[in-house]
Write a structure and sequence with these properties.
Strand content: 15-25%
Number of helices: 5
CATH superfamily of one domain: Protein of unknown function DUF881
Largest sheet: 5 strands, antiparallel
Distance between the termini: 149 Å
CATH topology of one domain: Alpha-Beta Plaits
CATH architecture of one domain: 2-Layer Sandwich
CATH class of one domain: Alpha Beta
Number of strands: 8
Helix content: 40-55%
């Protein structure tokens, strides 16, 4: 039998074309099935994807703005009470630490050395005529005990870290030196402050020396006293507040230290400077 090569070539090309068409049909069918399984609104190109992402971002931004507005509204509703509490706490801390100037009714106590001619009296020593550290301490402690809310000494604010000492007849306070008269000012109920002063046994001893040798003593009530703010540092290096202690308690509730009681001198003779009964003994 005679073969026809040309016919074979035609048959082979036809088969190849058929295979290609079949594969194309399979691909189109698969794409159609995939398209049917997706949301018809989903974009199929980059441009549509960008538009869809932008729309979604706009919706989320709107939700965030709404939630932020709710948070701000709730926060604003809580601010008044919270701010008032913070302000009250800050004011108490500043008052207790002496960081702000204060004003109010109170007492002014002035102590002065006795005149030098008192030495002519029998039994009187030079040390008996001088106001000493002990005398100032009992005055300040009595005023605290009487409910003083703020105090100053020689025009400087007295705070929890204040320490003063006498060197001879000179007072050293906050790095400065002062000579008499010594002036203590305290803000509080004037009647209670005065009662606390004269109820102190140590002050009663001092008052006997006022009568005996002429030590200076003057107490004046004022409707308004103005005390300056403390200008130094309040940093503590070694002291800390014990656990369970409320640091915001009123200064009237703070514990005070009192010097030991001393016996009163007799009217007939004034004890010497080294005597245990002398108010000027340091």
């Amino acid at each position: 039998m005679t073969r026809h090569p040309r016919r074979r070539r035609v048959t082979t090309g036809t088969v190849a074309v058929g295979i290609v068409l079949a594969l194309a049909g399979v691909l189109f069918a698969a794409n159609a099935r995939l398209a049917q399984g997706q949301d018809s609104r989903a974009p199929q190109d980059l441009s549509d994807l960008a538009v869809a992402a932008s729309d979604r971002l706009a919706k989320l931004t709107t939700q965030v703005d709404a939630l932020r507005a709710d948070v701000e509204q709730l926060t604003a509703a809580q601010v008044p009470a919270s701010a008032a509490a913070d302000d009250a706490q800050t004011s108490l801390v500043e008052l207790a630490s002496g960081r702000v100037a204060v004003a109010g009714p109170g007492l002014t106590v002035q102590l002065t050395d006795a005149p030098a001619d008192s030495l002519r009296q029998a039994g009187v020593r030079p040390d008996d005529l001088v106001v000493h550290q002990q005398d100032l301490q009992v005055v300040i402690n009595a005023l605290w005990a009487g409910g003083a809310e703020a105090m100053s000494l020689q025009g400087q604010r007295v705070i929890s870290t204040t320490a003063f000492r006498c060197v001879g007849n000179v007072l050293s306070l906050h790095g400065r030196l002062y000579s008499p008269p010594y002036v203590v000012r305290a803000i509080g109920d004037p009647k209670k402050l005065r009662a606390a002063l004269y109820a102190s046994p140590q002050i009663q001893v001092y008052l006997q020396y006022v009568d005996a040798v002429g030590l200076g003593w003057n107490v004046t009530a004022s409707s308004t006293l103005t005390l300056p703010a403390y200008e130094g540092t309040t940093d503590l290096q070694y002291a800390s507040v014990p656990a369970g202690i409320d640091v915001l308690k009123s200064t009237a509730d703070l514990p005070t230290t009192r010097p030991t009681s001393t016996p009163s001198p007799t009217a007939a003779s004034v004890p010497s400077a080294t005597s245990e009964g002398s108010p000027s003994a340091q």
